[in-house]
Amino acid sequence: MVFGRNYGGAGCRPQQDITLTLALLRLQHVRVALNPIRDAPTHRACFRSDFNASSSMAKVPVFDIDPEAFHADPYPALAALQAEAPIAFVPQLQATLFTKRDDIFEQEKRVDTFSSDQPDGLMTRLMGRNMMRKDGTEHLAERKATFAAFSPRTVVQHWMPRFRATTQAILDDLAPQGGCDLVHDYAMPVAGNALRVITGLETLTAAEIDQASQSMMDGISNYAGDADTEVRCRAATAKLDAAIDATTTPHEMSLIAVQRAAGISEYSTKANVKLAISGGQNEPRDVIAGASWALLTHPEQRELLAEGSARWRNVFEEYARWISPIGMSPRRVARFDQIGGVDLKPEERVFFMFGAGNRDPDVFADPDVFDITRDTSKSIAFGAGPHFCAGAAASRSLIADVALPMLFDRFPDLRLSGEAQFAGWAFRGPLQVPVRWD
Ligand code: HEM
Q1: pLDDT the model gives residue 46
Q2: Average pLDDT over residues 160-181
Q3: What is the pLDDT of residues 299-317, one digit of tens each?
Q4: Candidates 382, 396, 404, 427: which one to mutate for ligand 1, based on the most atoms within 8 Å of Cβ?
Q5: For residue 411, which of 194, 166, 186, 190 has the smallest C-alpha distance?
Q6: How far, in Å, is the centroid of ligand 1 from the Cα of 53?
Q7: Are 435 and 330 in contact (CB under 8 A)?
Q8: How far is CA 260 from CA 216, 253, 255, 391, in A?
Q9: How far is CA 50 from CA 15, 229, 335, in A?
Q10: Cα-flanking dihedrals φ and ψ of residue 391, to 5°?
Q11: Is the CB of 295 under 6 A from ligand 1?
């Protein structure tokens, strides 16, 4: 949950991730000034000793990327990384990237080396220290306390009927229009309404949830230090804090209620609600719109679904593998370690690249192909360690049991009416998916 894609807020035209681009270009500029291997060709790995002045001859492969190309489509560079240097330092991201599925699956669990605690990180500073930024027993305590709001049983008993009702209302409003942008007009309110229900923040609208989510995502990816972005993020978190304070009788199974019942401090309760809103809005939105686009552009896959050779759950899992909505999760190196011959030093930054792992050719045959009949059991779209997505059961139900089938049932002649452009690598999804129906 580091870099986001800017949508420009509800109702605005989507824009490129300017914050990210500026931040990365700034980093690149520094590298050019300091790095003796600056002429290494793009997408090429080389081996460099002592890449950090403080290191005593640490060995780390260095791999250069073109930040703009990476933002537009990270998969070519990720495939090259996997083939040439599966664990490599990428100067433009100032991080060591793990790109092989099995490496990520194994290493993410080694929390003594790969810590989630990032005290000086933007997320901690702007949103409060949530469970995604805790390790070990400290993390487990909050994970257990929040489980009741996220459990498969709660999802089926309490949230599913609400998901269906709000989605039905959105479809009823859209039907007479004959067309829409699936990202903004359908996926966004469906995801926002689900979060209102799960968190207990029902006084806010879905649009307010979405706006808060986007402002926080922009804030925690604001490596360029843009003052306006920080102000917007702080305003969003203040608004959420006030709304949580005002929520005195939330649904008993909501994220707010179960944490209060478990005795979690109000500070941590708020931090975890903000985490769910910042991290639980864009992924369902991107999968609902993206998987719809995938089916509309792969009629043979839609046919498999129609004839019963695959189910909506398969569509969900395969899309999340193919275009992972969260492409990576960051960690802080907490102690000296050596993995695969690569040295890691305390305080270095590691990115576990889920999106790359999900296209690892050693695990998935023809990984670039969208195939809803494939075995996706080794997908790491929801992570691979103690921070495995808490909202996984809710997301599967919302997307595969409600949002996708209800959309395609309601509009059997659903068709694309324009191009869908995708962007992002830390978070990836379509910027717009224009569709029509009769
Ligand atoms: C398609 C939808 C979603 C995807 C693909 C997704 C993916 C992820 C990933 C990759 C992580 C980090 C895992 C790691 O670092 O190992 C994560 C963490 C998390 N997600 Fe999701 N997510 C989705 C939806 C949601 C929703 C809807 C919610 C809340 C309602 C949510 C709440 C969380 C929380 C609270 C964490 C942190 C868990 C912890 O620290 O223990 N997610 N998610």
Answers
A1: 55
A2: 98
A3: 999 999 999 999 999 999 9
A4: 382
A5: 186
A6: 36
A7: no
A8: 23, 11, 9, 19
A9: 39, 36, 17
A10: -95, 20
A11: no
